[in-house]
Amino acid sequence: MIDAQSALANPSVTRREDYQAPDWLVPDIALDVDLDPATTRVRAALDVTRNGDHDRPLRLDGGGFSPLSVSVDGNPHNDWRMEDDQLVIDLPTGRHRVETEVEIHPDRNTQLMGLYASGGNLCTQCEAEGFRRITFFPDRPDVLARYSVKMTADKKRFPILLANGDPIASGDLGDGRHWAEWRDPFPKPSYLFAMVAGDLAANRATFTTMSGRTVELGIWVRKADLAKTEHALHALQLAMAWDEQVYGREYDLDVFNIVAVDDFNFGAMENKGLNIFNSRYILADPDTATDYDYDAIAAVVAHEYFHNWSGNRVTCRDWFQLSLKEGFTVFRDQSFSADQGSAAVKRIEDVRSLRASQFPEDNGPLAHPVRPESYIEISNFYTATIYNKGAELIRMMATILGKDRFRTATDLYFDRFDGTAATCEDFVRCMEEGGRADFAQFRRWYSQAGTPRVSAALDHDAGSGRATLRLAQRTPPTPGQADKQPMVLPLKIKLFGGATGAALGEEQLYLLDQPESEIVFEGVSEAPVLSINRGFSAPVIVESDRSAADLAFLSAHDDDPFARYEAMQQLMLDTLVTATELGRADHGPVIEAVRRTLEDPALDHAFVAEAVLLPSDSFIGDQFETVDPEAVFRAREALRRDLGKTLAPLWRQAYADASTDAPFVYSPAAKADRRMRTVALGYIAASGAEDAFDVAFAQFEKADNMTDRMGALTTLASGNSDKRVAALDIFYNRYSTDALVLDKWFQTQALSARDDTPAVVEELARHPDFTLANPNRARSLIGAFSVNQRAFHAAGGAGYRFLADNLIALDRLNPQTAAKLLPPLGRWRRFDETRAALMKAELERILAVPGLSKDLFEQASKSLEG
């Protein structure tokens, strides 16, 4: 912990330009761990070698403890000192064996970094800098070591002992204790170390690799949760096969284990051969998990498995290169998920997520490049920019190169850097060499923050049959980067005939790399309508001169599903922006476009359900220099109500067509029907129909799956029916002992559109089942409430005080989670003078707290300064 005021005057900043190779390398490390929740002893033996010609001492990072003993080459060693948290040892020659012993206390570790207790088990989380909380080590990603681990523990309490790599030996000690040894033959950075001790059961299977090796698979959970692991296990097998087919990457160890724990700061962790997961991304059955949960489990299981190559076999040189592994792997998991179902719907979901989290980040005080230049606390850079925007960079390169050249380039990358710590520049260079392309200008995507805005204006000369598309790009200033250079924007473009609806030529991929450019289309015999950034080929904001009629036309005729969805969304957004500004707008074009979509028999329910959803309150607000949350809410509710009333028969028909008495099945078609039911039910309720909440409650009561139950509960939770309280009580009583489902109960109420949501959330924070100690529970209430734009920004600032109070309390327990929940306060400049002053005051109050963590200090101070 640091004092916020002194840190503000002189913060400790790590800068990319200051990178230096490690002074000492550690080819091998052997750990002997005597496990106990209260006091664990860790004996570490490091084989160290001097890296280069220098006489600098060995510096080992620690976690606030002092060594119980230090020896060098088998002899007790007293020539050591502590400098801050580093153990410093002067060594006479270039190669030594250094041994240390420390004591740590897992049951006191509320930060959930290092070794900690969760649900009666002991587990680790070491990314980014958690290994130093276990033992002394040069805790940086470019120090790769081969790990051998011996674990000893009480056998009754911890019958299962797991670590990275493959099992070597195990046995009993005769005193009620037992031991196990594991060895990982592949050098890895310390952030990938993992071990688990607990009373766990495994769902086991095997996978045969493309070279014929058999890999033993295991998903380890509490015995009571074993039945909920089938979906995750199947997803793992699918991911392993997909990675072989698409990237030619084979798994390399004899075992692959996953452990699910309840207390986890992230979604999951890709530790070599022993992935540790937040249980919400493993456990699923129809009664407790929604289709969203099922999809997320498959995506996260795939993501962590894919890291075996894009992150583990090739790791990152330093934390500034974080997107090297995360952006690439997000792209890989998105591609995997698209191949498992509807690629169009998956792309819609990914872009919606990008716009909800990354675009606001780019447009706020915490904006940073995909490859940042500095940080105070690295954990704050696990952001949507690193992950989601980083994935878009890979997607753009793949789009530019094409499938075959991209595969050649990735093969080159994996082969060239296997077993090493690489950089983003190394990756781009492989894209150039393997893909036979020049990405010199494209590199700006890694160093320049902000979301580019592209203006597009299309002119048509009927006499000459020539259409001219004028394009211009600009990227608004971001903190520390006032002047922006032109980016390389791969824009997929196509023209359609406004009269015939026919395609006027093939789709083109145009690379916009200048501030302004023109594209001339010849032989355009009728007035054209522009379809641009098809498939969201570049992560940009398009500002075009397309009319409401053009957008309505595209929403009905475009042959690219994403572009069709995008046209509908833009038509809705334009209408809602006008209504927010003027207090009214013509809803007719939107209603007719939605009508055509609902009546189109060629469209499946999965696409229709996404296409007819209105943009979110927060996305509408992002279109304004100064956001008026109440005006946005009124405009959106008015359009929802009008859509619901005017198209009432169609919503009833859509609901009926998507309904079935067949039992639950997890399939693309069944998921599409459930999604359509939820969307149609929402519009039926928005219409004000007298029986709307009766329909919702009937669905809630008879549902045989969590998707339908939550779809109904979400509708009821935002209404004024007396069935709202009944449904919430029934839900709570049924699932009060299931922590993951109870999170949904908290979250649903925190996201409610009701006027009393702020008061309800305050009350829920005092509920016996609410705790700040569990990150999932904190996110389900505090995190959900802070993104409920209307409720959080309610007049008077109670929402701001509520968030600040809880962040201050949470910071004492878990700084990482607290810092992740602060950004909604950091957007204070986007709101009116009164709200801005209230939000700013809460940020200042947070910074005035004695003993504030580096994590929260960095986020709060940047939010004030940015």
For this entry, give a set of tags.
about 850 residues, alpha+beta, eight-stranded mixed sheet, five-stranded mixed sheet, 29 helices, 31 strands, about 20% strand, globular
Given the structure, what is the number of helices?
29
What is the share of helical residues? 40-55%
Tell me the β content.
15-25%
User: Could you say which structural class the secondary elements and strand pairing correspond to?
Assistant: alpha+beta
Low-confidence stretches: none
Q: Distance between the terminal alpha carbons, to the nearest Å?
A: 23 Å
Q: What is the subunit organization of this protein?
A: single chain
Instruction: Estimate the global geometry from the Cα principal axes.
Output: globular
| Topology, number of strands | 31
Rg on CA atoms, Å: 28 Å
Largest sheet composition: 8 strands, mixed
- Strands of the biggest beta sheet: in what spatial order? 6-5-9-3-2-12-15-14
Indicate the mean pLDDT: 97
